Amino acid sequence: MPDKRGQLPAPDVSYNSRCALLVGIVTGGAMAHHTGIDLAVALPHPPIFIEGIGSAADHTEAKASLDAFVRAAEKVVAADPEVLVIATPHGNTYGDCFNISPGRGAKGDWRSFGRDPVRYEASFDEAFAGALRQAAELAGIPCIESVEPVLDHGVMVPLHFLIAAGLQLGRCKLVRISISFLDEAAHYKLGCCVQQVAAASGRTAVFVASGDLSHRLKHDGPYGYASEGPAFDKAVAEAFAAGDFARFFSFEKGFRDKAAECGLNSFLVMAGVFDGYDVRAQLYSYEGPWGVGYGIASFNRAEPNEARRFA
Ligand SMILES: [Zn+2]
């Protein structure tokens, strides 16, 4: 059974073809009356947060995170999104390109975590996904369409709380982005493309950066202890609180590996969504009760700021 406290991203699956597939779907119709994504949230994805997987005692221990999750989810639902763009580290992940899920949708459940019968059924926004692939290609960012009919827990845990807060999956469609093992700048630039497509779509979109923090906070945690773990989490929690996205670029690769972090690439995509803008940041909670760090924060787009172009 997978570790319910959190897992690291799947190993790099090499993909040698440089994204031969390019779908020429563009968002149709008149130019935007909306101006793109105004709200993003950073959310962790431990299945143990789900009732029936985690115990009541677990949920008492992680009360700060669970309360924060509810608040963040309510904020997303209050924005009434028609499109939820979610970056996950736990889908089909490739070394040299992003995977933007194709198809009409995907389903998921918690059977592999011993819980039945909660099921989720999400429809994908195929037009948005197609336009995003096209925008990414134009920006020199390779993407593929890896068919994946099953939702990963990086999507399902945020969805679970969003649905509980009132999100209607029939009305709100999903765009699922699996992060890659490309560099920080590539992730950031994909976020810039997300913002462009959202602005052109004329639809209300919210971005969800799904990611746990370090997995090496405690000796009895799933991956043991390393001093880089708490150091990484402190830096990210501070970056969340201040909206200081430059911090996301400040880690050496070796440091990230030693910290056994999960979510930084998702956070980098989120940073790109707000390229050239100040943000109003709110850190709802940070804690790591079981050796894995969980940070929950929201970011509202504020005024343009040319100094905030990080890649
Ligand atoms: Zn993870």
Helix content: 25-40%
| CATH domain topology | Protocatechuate 4,5-dioxygenase, Chain B
Rg from Cα: 18 Å
Total number of beta strands: 10
Q: What proportion of the residues form beta strands (DSSP E)?
A: 15-25%
Broad structural category: alpha/beta
Give the CATH architecture: 3-Layer(aba) Sandwich
Number of alpha- plus pi-helical segments: 8
Helix-strand sequence: EHHEEEEHEHEHEHHHEE
The order of strands across the largest sheet is 6-3-7-2-8-1-10-9
Number of domains: 1
What CATH first level would be assigned? Answer: Alpha Beta
* Name of the CATH homologous superfamily: LigB-like
Quote the average pLDDT: 91
Low-pLDDT runs of 5+ residues are: 12-34
> Major sheet: size, sense and barrel closure?
8 strands, mixed
Structural account:
With 311 residues, the protein is α/β, with parallel strands linked by helices. It contains eight helices and ten strands. It has one domain: LigB-like (Protocatechuate 4,5-dioxygenase, Chain B). The strands form two sheets. It has an eight-stranded mixed beta sheet with strand order 6-3-7-2-8-1-10-9. A hairpin with a 6-residue loop joins strand 9 and strand 10. The longest helix is centred in the middle third of the chain and has 18 residues. Bound molecules: zinc ion.
